[in-house]
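Recall that a protein's primary structure is simply its ordered list of amino acids. Everything else, from secondary elements to tertiary packing, is in principle encoded there. The following example makes that idea concrete.
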Amino acid sequence: MVLTPVLAASLLVCGGGLSLALYFGSLALLRRIREPALLAVFLLVASLRGLLPVLSVLGGPFPLMDGVALLRFDGVSLLLIGVTYVLFLRALFPEDVPRLLPQAVIGVCAAAGLLILLIPADSLGLLMDWSRLLLMLVLLAVGILAVLLMRRWRDGAGWVALSVLVLVVAVLVESVVWPRPGLPLRDTVEAIGPVTTGCVLFALGHVFLMGARLNRVYQASQTLSRHVVALNRRLEERVTEASREIHATREQLEAIVSCVPDGVLTLTADASVDIFGPGAERVFGWRGQEMTGRPVVTLLSPEWGERLVKSMRRFAAEGVLTYTGQGPVEMVGRRRDGSLFPMQCTVTRIDIGGQPVFVAAVKDLSEVYLQAQQIAGLRRANETLRQDLAQLEIWGGVGHCLSEWQDGRWTWRCSDGFLAVWGCDTGAHPETLAGFLAGVRAEDQLALFSWLDRQDWTSGARMIRLSVRPEEERLVELSICRVRDDHGVVVREIGIVRLAGVTPVEAGKGEESMATVGDNAPGAAVGAEAVRTILLVEDVEVNRRVAVTFLEREGYRVEVASNGLDAVDMAGRGDYDLILMDIRLPDVDGVEATRRIRALPDPVRSAVPVLALTANVFGDDLSRYEAAGMSGVVAKPIRMPQFRTVLGGVLTRRRRQAAVSAGPDWTSLDQILDETFIRDRRAALGADSFAVILDLGRRSVSFAAEELDRSVRVPAPSGDDVAKAGHKLAGAASNFGFSALYALGRQVEALCEAGDLTGAVSLGQQAAALHRQTDAALDQWLASAR
């Protein structure tokens, strides 16, 4: 075969195309980029289209391809060139080239390729002519589209236009010179050369196109990066400068405000006091003439005095004073009485007659430190109190809600204690009070909602019954207070709920009716006269809760006073049918409070029956109670049968002499719990009410045990304090059958009253350990009782 110039040019360009295909294929594999991969396929197909026929003609290791095979290969390769070009264009311009265009081209080319491979040889020439014409039209259309899309990169668009033009010319030349039947194979191979050359030039045009595009993008990104870096640098400089100015201003203000000295003194180079001003006299307690000439270390703590001595030695050797550091320094001073205190000192050096003199301005920081400690302590106490109140609200069976008129609508919110009383989950619950009241018994709802709809009252309360679960009902006291504006319109409603008791449905169904707190509520079970209100005087929270629960379950309204003076005041103003009086109260005891009640000028109020509520039920105590005017004694802990007997006897006026109920016979420290008493108490209160009050009781007993332990471990115990702590422990423990703690508290109180403080202190030191044993035994009993 003769190597013609056209054939040589085709071989050269095909070799370059194969090299470029290898390069872009490697780049696509390494960087996993789609565009180089498509370009590599394009170059490979274009190069093989000219190279394989040439190698076939040359012979050697490659088999000779006949004219039909070359014709079929030529047609398929032309279609592959068109497909890869469209895919490459889609990859370069995904936002401009529709997705359906490559799919349509692939479908058409696949159908044409199938025809080329399957059509008979005698019809192949005509089909190839039409295929070249179709390819030429497609390439023209796609080239025009590429030029339009590439108008933003004019250099690349020119290369695309040139490559498309060369390819179209090559296809036209090939259509003219393509061999007809009988033309030698050599002429056929030489005719393929222009088409192959055009295809490779077409691919190289895209290489320059992509390079121009990437170069412009890179230059734009570099320019943007430089602008961003410059802007960031300027911003950092501005921020640094502003921060420096703010810091300097803050230091100046702090120096002006916080360094106003309380006293000024001057020091010589040997650290002796030269001038001791009046302010320094007030700070340190020394007089000026006493400190003149004395070493300044007298005014400092040992640590700071040693630091001053070292600093002055260095000053004598090097002429540099580093004792005070930069600006004011906080140090520890010493007063004349030897007490240490925090102070702030600023030292300034001046030269007088060539001799250095140091002026020290001092400021006493004792008040500042004390105020900071007080503020921190108040914050901690406030946070602790807030948490304790929230928890006690839940444990104590109380809660609150608030309705406010804001921005033209009512807003409503409630506490976790409110949800606990209503038996609702904190996650899902009604959003209004009316939604909660939907759980009230049907026979109570009519009167309740009628009362709420009325606008003629400002505050009031109702006892309501809730059907929380099918097997139980809850007795809840709902108190509401309304706040009105200047026009008398209600703008806020504050609601308080309190869990009064839990009743099984079978036992309580139909036995109670809803009553206003101010309405008549007849006493139950004892056959007494109609009793409306009982005044309970008790200073211990858990004891109040237990007594209130029992009395309200009996149908009485209960008001509470926490000390004797309040009890006398409430008895003189209110109308009560009975007063339950604790003996040990914070201000005046129950005996003195009863005497003052009996001395009231109102004959009706002064004659109200008073029952002593105490654990002291011995002979001398009973005589003292009766002499003060008390009508009877109810021993702690309250037991319902004995309580009803004493209460009924007094209220029905069947006995005017003192009625007494016996207290518990818990005298041994070995019996940790009275399980029978606990079971009876649980049955009397109901499981839910008992659980709520038991939690509060355990906390109360814990506090009482800690108070007794502290009172006996101080350096000089007080008999009154130890006796009060023992009484409080016995009272708290008596309500829940904590027999050992009750016995311990009663014995400590008895030893103090007998004057044996040493024995009381020794016995009281067992309170903490006995409390831990009680907690463990109670947990075990509760686990077994489930």
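The longest strand covers residues 490-504. The chain has four domains: 5-213, 263-364, 520-663, 675-785.
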